[in-house]
Amino acid sequence: MQLVLNTYGSYLHKIEDCFEIKTDQQKQQISVNKIESILITTGVIFSSDAIELAIKHNIDIVFLDNFGNPYARIWQPKLGSTTLIRRRQLELAETDAGLNLVIEWEQQKLEHQIQFLEELSRHRENKAAQITDHIQALRSARERLGQLQGTIEQKRSEIMGLEGSASRSYFAALAELIPPRFKFQGRSRQPAKDEFNAMLNYCYGILYSQVEKACIIAGLDPFVGFLHTDNYNKKSLVFDLIEPYRIIGDKTVFYMFSKRQVKKEYFDPIKNGIMLNKEGKKALITAFNERMETTVRHRGRNIKLKDIIQFDCHHLANSLIKQHDQRT
Amino acid sequence: MLVWVIYDIIKTKTRTKVAKACLSAGIYRVQKSVFLGELNLNQIDQLSLKIERLIDLEKDSVYIFPLCRDDFKKVKLLGQAFDKKMVTDEIRTKFF
Description:
Chain A has helices at residues 48-56, 83-92, 96-122, 128-146, 152-177, 195-218, 236-241, 246-258, 278-292, 305-327; strands at 2-5, 11-15, 18-22, 27-31, 37-40, 45-46, 60-64, 70-74, 267-270, 273-276, 295-298, 301-304. Chain A has 328 residues and is an alpha/beta fold. Chain A has a 4-stranded mixed β-sheet with strand order 1-5-7-8, sandwiched between helices. A 4-stranded mixed β-sheet of chain A has the order 4-3-2-6. Chain A is globular. The model of chain A has no long low-confidence stretch (mean pLDDT 92).
């Protein structure tokens, strides 16, 4: 279970081996055995004992701002696994194997997007014609990615260009398919200009924090990226690795709209845009966590979506070391 | 598996400690002397040992009943009911 502190002024502290949470309305104790993670989405108060209890049981505490951007995490300071993995990350970025990794991640994203649009248009015959062109654009982007050779540095701008145009096609298609009442005009952030983008940004924010956690545990350095690189304090690898998982956010958000689970009351207007409020966050986080419980087939085994990210990060870290062992 | 812990304990102090042990283990109070929740075999053993050390074997009684999912679905709750989803760990997200 994920614990979400979504009420301003909530108080989290420790009693024996339980967290106790107090709000104006309620008070409850929950065993650490039942908690996987803690998400803080507004201003709350908590004790150092609660932090210690969480860390002792490998429960991370993540802080999201009003737009869903994770701005802090409380986690143990130990380096996960071996430093060799980080060394290999640095080496790999310079080689054609690094380019192949990046292409693989981008192609996975495109594949997910293509399948999603195909699935959606199958149930919306009257829109199929417009969507087909967008799907074709994604297919050709996927194929052109597959033809790239060389190093990341040589091909970076070409990859970014392909990614950008594919993204515009993808979101244009989704805008076509979403219920007319919530029609949007492409991607927007900081702040979102419409309901779709407000919700999608928030979902991506949660995913960023989950990818980062998986990196840390697997021993990967979140700051050493391949395609996204070396900006001061930028978690570059997180932006690389998240690509195949964005579809989780896309589906969560889109289906909430198509199933009429989104209300105008979930949003508050702000300067230049729109923001999810407390009720909106609750509805979205609930739907997101439900989707994460879905079991899918992945690398030859049945696995829950929420465990795939960690599984893939371990797989990547292991492959980095394995290549090194074979070399020596 | 689902576990019911049902007790009759003479001393208030002991009763409080047993209740805390149940809470810490992760099962939920559904009546004054009844706890219910999802535990694995290891956790059941640990909880049993802890309770056994706390109680007076001559005077107190504590019953730990395992219950499979299918049978739990047939459980009837009359009057004041508890949250079935909560005790069976079906709640993914808890908001405050």
